[in-house]
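TODO from last week: model Copper chaperone PCu(A)C.
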Amino acid sequence: MIAGCGAGFDATTNQPYAPNEAQVLIEKGAYGTRGIHIPQAFILGPDPGAQLAWRGSAPIYLNILNKSDTPDTLQTITAGGMGEVKVTAPIQLPVGQLVNTGKPTPQIMLESIPKSLRGGESIKLDLQFAKAGVVSMNVPVVTRSREYQDYPPAPNATPA
């Protein structure tokens, strides 16, 4: 018996994938909207086999590129019912410059998380920019393993 399946050259399964891409922002092959591009976004969860405790905290890492004609500012972030997001200060986004919100230390924290997180979840974030307005995306919670193992541990992580 021989079986086959075809989906064409532009099928989702033929596209590049990394678990930390801000997938909701993909519009016609671009990681962004209204001049704001976010090619990488993740929430750093616990070590493998552990969990972030109820009411715990986790750093949010974003790489943001302002491709518009004028500077912009990331002012606030909300996470719906998944906790409070603290931005240490408005994040300036110069034109054409990639800004990493996690270096040298995380500037954005998800706090008072209403349930335990183990990694693999996604949390919807609404980012408020001064000029671009609100940009919404689902951001994955990743465990502190592989390429994320050198990041500092998430606060309040406990064994599962």
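Done. The mean pLDDT is 84.
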